[in-house]
Amino acid sequence: MKEFADFLSEQPPFDALDADDLARLVARVEVEYFAAGATVIAEGEPLEHLWVVRTGALEVVDRGEVVDLLGPGDAFGHLWLLAGLPPPLRVRAHEESLCLRIPDPRAFLARPDLLRFAAVNPGPGVRRLARVADRLGRTDEPLARLVRPILWCDADDSVRDVAERIGAGQQSCALVRTGAGLGIVTDLDFRRAVATGRVGVDAPIEVLATVPALTVEADATQATGLLRMVEHGVHHLVVVDAAGQPTGVLRAVDLAQVEVRDPLLVRSAIGAATDIDELADACRLLPTTLVELWDNGVPATHIGAVHAAIVDAIVRRALRLHRLPTLDGVRHSWVLLGSLARREPLPLSDVDTALVWATDTDKADAMRADARELLRDLQICGFTLCGNGANAHNPVFSQSRSGWLAAARGWQRDPTQENALLLSAMVADSRPLTDPELGRSLTETMRSHTRSGQFLRALLTDALGWRPPVGFIRDFVIEHTGEHGGQLDLKAGGLAPVVGLARWIAIVGGDASGTTIERLHRGAALGLLSADEAETLAGGFENIYGLLLHHEIEAIRAGETPDTYISPKDLDTLARRHLRETFRAIALVQTSIDRSWHYRLPG
Fold first, then answer.
1. What is the Cβ-side half-sphere exposure of residue 428, based on CA atoms within 13 angstroms?
2. Which of 255-264, 582-591, 593-602 has the lowest mean pLDDT?
3. Would you tell me which CATH number, out of the four given (3.40.50.11260, 3.10.580.10, 3.40.47.10, 3.90.199.10), belongs to the domain 145-260?
4. What are the backbone angles phi and psi of residue 69, rounded to the nearest 5°?
């Protein structure tokens, strides 16, 4: 029994229990053996126990796909046990395994609140359980509480030796000191390379290591950790302190949230695609993933960030799969525009793109032809290109660096020329996907001090042209006729007014980075907004974005084509009142900025 007490006292979620409760826990432990391939947890069967892996390894299987591997010390089953829901996943033995079976600890522990479960309700279609949320953890909590200790090794240590140390230390990875910097080797690296015979057990561990290892700051949130994993398609992050020194390792399984499972499943399928048809198959997982994230209570803006990270991965994979004869021989950068660039797309959002190449060339037409082929691949994958022409094969949106800079200066000198304000706004909402240094040249002129008051005023007037649909007599100004009679366009009347002001702030401040909410807070720091105005606009954006995301998610669930229109009568009284007040608050801020914008500009 002492062996179990020593073992469990070092493993979350039990490592915060006092000695008495630990003794109560150990008294209820039963040991269960599973042969390789045996089912430990079956989908849909109610649970009365949770388990902890003592020896061996277990596979987590989602719709036939192995999405994670649990090793010694990993707890499982607790999510569904605590939520009182049948598990949606299957857990089976990857090899001969011993597991510790424990009944619901809330029934016999004196302080069950000390159990450090870091997860949320995993059941598809069921909201996060508010009463359990404090104990289960939230995506906005620091990830430091989930960090595991580091197992270090040197570049010339043998694969055999490191594997033995990983097993003895009940770890799933090791950090490697190499001449090129910090590296990481994971259990997946061993399975892919050593188990297949590609790398021998006496080879130096450096041949397996990924260098540099991907890091995350210790004070980051769990949501940030998840997003970093999805962006890069990894299951481990090295946690570093303020000085950049490693302090621990974070694993996807430690996050143990449903929002980890589905985005990483899609991300893995994207990375495994060997042609465009397979990539298109992976893309078909994206809509249902967004639905499941919403159903499990993930904040709307976080869903948008994960969505953008997955689209980034899709475009990058398409670029690797499709040979582009002319572009492959020229330094160039693919750039995302619009909501994808701001990392706040909706399921309905188009994929807006631009292209910039390093030097003037007579191959522009051939490069645009290459770009058209790549965009056709994205259409095969189910994406819609910009209907207003913001596509990388369009000569307006595909130019050399000098061409982009000359165009931007021309827009600043004469904002009355055709499409000058529209194009300035599009360039402000740009984010390089490849060759960031080159791609950032699109926004270089935003840091220029030559921008005139006329240009900034014209941009502001254009931004203020988007007005919330609030009337003086009726609650809302709605469409009266046509296909959308009796409805509101939440994108044009709700998101666009806030996005437009945030974009204006980005241009005035010379910093095009960040989301709409991040830009608003920068505006307050620069004096372009008061703190109250920034909070009003940020809160309004979050409210409307969440409402619109919910509307589009319900359309996907019903098998319908999403749109941005809602009918006020379909909202409950509280939601309708909240939306009306949000619109009015945004309109008041617009009026205040319109009257005093010149006095707000930095000196």
1. 29
2. 255-264
3. 3.10.580.10
4. -130, 120
